[in-house]
Amino acid sequence: MSYSLVSWAHVLVMGYWLGSELVINALTHYIARTTSLSGVERMRLWDFLLDVDQHVRNAMIMSVPLGFTLASMLGLVPIEGLGVWALWMVSALWFWFMWMVHWRRKSPNGAVWARWDWRLRYPLIVFFAGSGALSLAIGWPYPEPWLAAKVLLFAGTIVCGIFVRHCIREAYRSALPAIAADRATDADNAEFRILMIKGTWALVVLWVLLFTIGALGALKPG
Amino acid sequence: MDLYWTLVFLHVIAFAYWLGGDFGVYVTGGYVARADLPLAERLRFLDALLKIDILPRTGIVLLPVLGLQIAALREAIFLPEWGKLAVWLGGAAWVAIVWGVFARRGTPLGERLQRIDVTLRYVVIAVLVVVGTSSLIDDGPVKEKWLAAKFLTYATLLAIGLYLRSVIKAWRVGFIELQRGPSESAERLIALGIQRGRRGAWLFWAIVALTAYLGVAKPF
């Protein structure tokens, strides 16, 4: 696999990530604000958003093995050969798990899958934030500060993802059942709108993080 | 900050919004075509689609503006200082036209701006094809062959964009008919438009991916 091919895929994945976020942002306000819609329509939009969110998550997971493979090719991470293959296998497992969580979300054990999805993110945040911060402090495992900062900020994107999940979970616990059953009160709609606004802010932070990650990769400062 | 890499970063961001925005148009388009959904909901998706579409339209204009500055910095083309300024000003004017078409859609001014935008695209396609082809087969103004090839793929993308625009126009005609009442011919028009649009989008993405590969790998 040549460097240029991986680099190309890494750039394509960034486009895919930003674009999927854009669709979510463009449609959220229809569900949150168009209270005149029927419950069926609002839930259809909601499911559509959750489907598009899968593309965001696809891109997030794919960017990990691609980014580390690029860094390995440049000799910037202490992973090579079998280590890179192992990373791809683990990422493939993560990818499979993420899709199972989505497909099983309406099944009786959907909540269990969602809980494990949530739990998985904490060690990932610790790993990316920890290794990024450690590298900025002592220059290991990523000797280049720009790469260390990228990994650290990537942990921030996972935090944003958790916050979005939190908003989704709160929506299921509060206003969504009433919206789906066409019995949403003004208070339900207001609560739902506030949750969507909070989620949108998390997306704005995510965009800032992604732009910064992109700039660090292109400019390689320091 | 290094000007060259800053421009490269912005070029990648414009590319990301172009590619990603088109993906957004693609997924929302699927709902626009669904005859089983209420008309109001389909129109809402069409509205969202048009709102998302403004970003790829902006990206497609910014890409050559940034790309030409990058090419001049790496001396792949000769562009004097006044030429660089002209490219920025021309690009800004073109972006203003694109946003004017979006903001004034459905008005006579919007229609006029759209005609200007389309004419501009034909001119740009012709210039890119001539410059790209001459540089590929002989010593044209572009000194690096991969960049000359990018001129040609970009011209192709502009042409496909014009085709997709005509497809979206067919949807609009279909929806105007549907607003008068249920109509099989309108549904057929919309379904055919979606089918054509999807084929166009797949071809578009393949060429976008090729264009990105040429820029990243610089293979020849």
Which tags fit this structure?
heterodimer, A: 222 residues, mainly alpha, 7 helices, 0% strand, elongated, B: 220 residues, 6 helices
How would you describe this protein?
The complex is a heterodimer of chains A (222) and B (220). Chain A contains 7 helices and no strands. Chain A is mostly helical and 222 residues long. In chain A, helix 1 (3-33) runs antiparallel to helix 2 (39-73) and helix 2 runs antiparallel to helix 3. The model of chain A has no long low-confidence stretch (mean pLDDT 89). Chain B has 220 residues and is mostly helical. Chain B is 85% helix and 0% strand. Chain B contains 6 helices and no strands. In chain B, helix 1 packs antiparallel against helix 2 (39-73).
Summarize the structure.
The complex is a heterodimer of chains A (222) and B (220). Helices cover 83% and strands 0% of the residues of chain A. Chain A has 222 residues and is mainly alpha-helical.
Class derived from helix and strand content of chain A? mainly alpha
Principal-axis shape of chain B: elongated
- Structural class of chain B comes to mainly alpha
Give the ordered list of helices and strands of chain A. HHHHHHH
- Give the overall pLDDT of chain A as a whole number: 89
- Oligomeric state of the chains? heterodimer
Radius of gyration of chain A: 19 Å
How many β-strand stretches of chain B?
0
Number of helices of chain A: 7
Catalogue the unreliable spans of chain B.
none
Q: What is the string of helix and strand elements of chain B?
A: HHHHHH
Strand content of chain A: under 5%
If you average the pLDDT of chain B, what whole number results? Answer: 87
Output the radius of gyration of chain B.
19 Å
Largest sheet of chain B: none
Helix proportion of chain A: over 70%
